[in-house]
Request: fold
Amino acid sequence: MSLRKSTIYQSYFYFLISLLVIFNGGNSDLFTQLNFVLVSLFFLWCLQDTNYKAHIKKFYFNNKQLITLYLFFLFYLFFQITPLPIDFLKIFSPTKYNLLINLNFENYFSPISFDIGKSFFSILNYCSLILYLIIFKSIFYKERHVNNFYFFLTFLSFISSIVAVYFYLINNPDFLFISNHNYKNASTGFFINRTVFACFLNLGFLAGIECLKHIDLNSKRKDYFFQKIYLRLFLLFITIGIITSFSRLGNFLFLFLIIFYLFNFYKNKDHKNRFIFYSLIVIILFDIFVLGFYFGGNQLLERFTFLKSELLIYTNDNNQNLTLARGDLAKFSLFQLNDFLFFGYGAGNFETIFKIFFNQLDSTFANHAHFDLAEFIGEFGMVGIFILMLLVIRILKKITLISIKNIYLIFFIIFILFFDFSFHIFLIQLIFSLLLSVYIKVPQKKIF
Reply:
């Protein structure tokens, strides 16, 4: 029996997403290159098919302004790594110019970016991101395709959670390419960082709820009994993964997600989704039972205090006594904005800036600021952020803001931009973008 063409293409897309999950969210220079090559070949493969080529053209003409703005943003990133006459840096990057003069720099050309290599790999990620989005919109163009993607993402999160909890129970040993030595007392699975892992599971949980919601709406047309059972089991194990990650931000986003959907279902008296409502109630009770009775009652409220230590550190305005604490890293990233306000220090260059300008540097260093917004502003400068803001405004006009999924995603990105670095991880950028781009025409009710 031959497979459908759509099944083959979609399976290859799932394969690429799975590789990203397995290899730490694509957070390595080597995998960044491999990922770009694979998705580029996939894009060319889609262009060979007449039907998908037509979908790609349709996507381009329907989103011409968005794509043009994004290409302009990529052009700006290439400008940051273009060698300029060193005297031009007086205008574009005075701080780097003064540093090069003090070091008796003999070359006559230097880019705005402090590390061309890091910036180049970041550019590859941003190129891959738009290719993934175009491919996704071209091959997942039917409602059942989108539901299949939701189911796959939930299943992938379930597998990640199973692996993470298993390694957590055996004290997180390093195994092959899985590095767990940074977190011996938390689930991380394929990911090095527990908050990135928890954020990914949150997006997978969101996909699972959306899949259940659309299944309930179409249950009269087809029997989804076993699929609904599988999804509920997946969501339960994803819950365990998020809880045992002990990520305060991840657990906060998880509980916020559940309460947000429960409130919406209850307020709208959505009888078609009543089984999802009951499922979420059970998950909350399970959450309270596991956290309260197994890990201790103090864990129940600790997820809401993820800002406590950071806010205490913010009260200290002494730039000379910064440490590697999250709050101090955030403050350091803010201090750098004064020196790189307009044109930034280059995409992916926070680690380099940290090594050069951090006052208390020893054998340890930080590659992210734990404050994504400040890090993005530092990387791109106000010029790059202005281009991105124009892009965001156009996107907000395009997406369906009455969708509860999209409203949650907006809250999700706001919390991450201010309190973590997870949006610098390619997988989180990708899954967030794909979920935000999804629109299924269903009867909408007022959310608030």
